[in-house]
Amino acid sequence: MRRYAERTAVPVLRSEIEIKRILQRYSADRIGIMSEPGRATIYFSIKGRDVQLPIPLPVVGEKLPGKQYVKWTAASAAAEERRRWRVMVLTLKAMLEAVESGVTTFDEVFLAHVVIGGNQTVGQLLVPRLTAMRTGQGLRELLSENP
Q1: Checking CA distances to 105, which of 14, 48, 62, 115 falls within 20 to 30 Å?
Q2: d(CA 63, CA 78)
Q3: Helices and strands, counts by H and E, the chain
Q4: What is the pTM for the complete model shown?
């Protein structure tokens, strides 16, 4: 099965512009996109919540996921970066439309990406503790750390 947007030729900049327009359409403000090697992050504020959506990006010369000896070339990394931005356009549009349509709530859809104290997201705080939380141990520790 082919991956979504596997052969896209849509430039990253066009996807970034589309993301900004989508966010504006759904009343987001303080919109920004920051890129650095290996990662881009979409920042915005909506419904009184600050949100960070990371996009992991391939780095030329690093190993491809699941491949022991194959590394990203400039061409393959650029193609994968375009694809991931298209995935993010689709994902963000679907998330916001689900909220707007009343299928779910903003907090339910974006919880992991909501920024809490210290520029950390809820997901960054909780995901490493999920295994322990399933047993109840990590939940008690978490609640005692954050009154």
Answers
A1: 14
A2: 15
A3: 6, 5
A4: 0.89
